[in-house]
């Protein structure tokens, strides 16, 4: 296969707004190192993680010189972001079987290995290393998962980040068919994934969203939908749900603990409503609640996600597509939060 020397892609030049993103036609094509594969990218999803990294949201102080990546370290610029990737393996590095060339894959974004070495602290694809907002990208072979599906590359690119995050939360909180699950931010990428994955387990699902998206969530599988401005205690009653899957936090947060049944489970992997919340510790211990902070993917999470895809238990929700060079418009549309599902960039020809 003829692999070019340079490629098109989006380079992040520094922390800040979308003006820090530059489209280039002359980025060197990476070469796979030991244990790696080279992937020709066909589609890449838009997500909160890439935007949060760009604006320095993960830093806990204003000094971004030695923090700001997903794992809290220093960012090297220019950086190619892009955590959600679907593409084809076109070359392999040393110690990788050559028969992997030609596989259609999606990339597991939570990385445990890079350049043949196990990482001391997990990385996120497109944060601590270059990602998929380019025509080619490299990743450890173990994180490039072959997928056999009739779905398009654009559809498959909607899965890696959001659906693995949701699957991780459901596994950690042990959601099963007997559970009633309350999901905040249910119309977003992770939220809509959690709806599908909870229904695939046979659980009863209550989604929280804006009223304009009620019908879409009911069609997706929610048994009930509640407005994001509603009083959850009045709507649901105390001790009414088994599990809360939270992607929002914010001022509504104390109500989540009130509606959880004694022995209930709370899993969180987002704070778009605000990261600082008020906790009455008595509610936590008197109700024997379990809290799960979910960031690093468990070892079996991505394998489980691939099985869900290949067995047709979940479907892709692509709200809109953009060309790679229109990334600023795509991210602006994403931040309006008027859509259900995922926004995807078409990268390949």
From TrEMBL:
The Enoyl reductase (ER) domain, residue ranges: 16-345
- Residue stretches spanning the membrane: none
Q: Does the keyword Transcription apply?
A: no
Q: Which domain of life is it from?
A: Bacteria
Q: Which UniProt keywords apply?
A: NADP
Which one of the record's GO molecular function terms can you name? Answer: oxidoreductase activity
What PANTHER family does UniProt report for this protein, alphabetically?
QUINONE OXIDOREDUCTASE (PTHR44154:SF1)
Give the protein's recorded name: Alcohol dehydrogenase
Upper classification of the source organism reads: Bacteria, Pseudomonadati, Pseudomonadota, Gammaproteobacteria, Alteromonadales
């Amino acid at each position: 296969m003829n692999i070019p020397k340079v490629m098109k892609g989006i380079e992040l030049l520094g922390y800040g707004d979308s003006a820090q993103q530059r489209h280039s036609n002359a980025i060197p094509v990476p070469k796979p190192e030991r244990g790696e594969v080279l992937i020709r990218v066909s589609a890449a999803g838009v997500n909160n993680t890439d935007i949060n990294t760009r604006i320095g949201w993960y830093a806990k102080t204003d000094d971004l010189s030695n923090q700001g990546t997903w794992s809290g370290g220093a960012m090297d610029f220019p950086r190619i972001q892009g955590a959600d990737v679907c593409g084809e393996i076109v070359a392999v590095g040393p110690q990788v079987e050559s028969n992997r060339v030609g596989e259609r894959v999606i990339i597991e974004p939570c990385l445990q290995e890079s350049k043949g070495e196990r990482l001391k602290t997990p990385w996120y694809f497109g944060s601590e290393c270059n990602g998929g907002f380019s025509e080619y990208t490299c990743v450890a072979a173990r994180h490039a998962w072959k997928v056999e599906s009739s779905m398009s590359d654009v559809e498959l690119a909607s899965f890696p980040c959001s659906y693995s995050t949701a699957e991780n939360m459901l596994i950690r909180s042990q959601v099963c068919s007997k559970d009633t699950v309350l999901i905040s931010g249910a119309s977003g990428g992770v939220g809509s994934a959690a709806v599908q994955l909870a229904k695939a387990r046979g659980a009863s699902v209550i989604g929280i969203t804006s009223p304009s998206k009620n019908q879409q969530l009911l069609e997706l599988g929610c048994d009930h939908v509640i407005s994001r401005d509603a009083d959850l205690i009045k709507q649901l009653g105390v001790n009414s749900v088994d599990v809360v899957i939270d992607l929002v936090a914010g001022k509504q947060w104390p109500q989540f603990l009130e509606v959880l049944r004694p022995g209930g489970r709370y899993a969180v992997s987002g704070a778009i409503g605000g990261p600082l919340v008020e906790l009455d510790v008595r509610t936590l211990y008197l109700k024997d609640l379990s809290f799960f902070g979910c960031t690093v993917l468990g070892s079996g999470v991505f394998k489980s996600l691939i099985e869900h895809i290949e067995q047709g238990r979940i479907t892709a929700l692509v709200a809109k597509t953009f060309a790679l060079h229109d990334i600023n418009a795509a991210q602006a549309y994403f931040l309006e939060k008027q859509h259900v599902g995922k926004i995807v960039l078409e990268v390949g020809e």
